Amino acid sequence: MHALVFIPTYNEQENIENLISEILGLNLDISILVVDDNSSDGTGKILEKISKALPRLSVIHRFDRQGRGLAGIVGFKYALKQNVDYIIEMDADFSHRPKYIPLFLEKIKDCDVVIGSRRARGGKVIGRGLRRECLSLLAQYFCRFVLGINVLDATSGFRCFRKNVLERIDLDKLKSTGPSIVEEINFHILKQGFKVKEVPIEFELRCAGSSKLNLIKVLDAFFTLLRLRFTR
Ligand SMILES: Nc1nc2c(ncn2[C@@H]2O[C@H](COP(=O)(O)OP(=O)(O)O)[C@@H](O)[C@H]2O)c(=O)[nH]1
Ligand SMILES: [Mg+2]
Question: Is the pTM of this model over 0.90?
Answer without folding.
Answer: yes
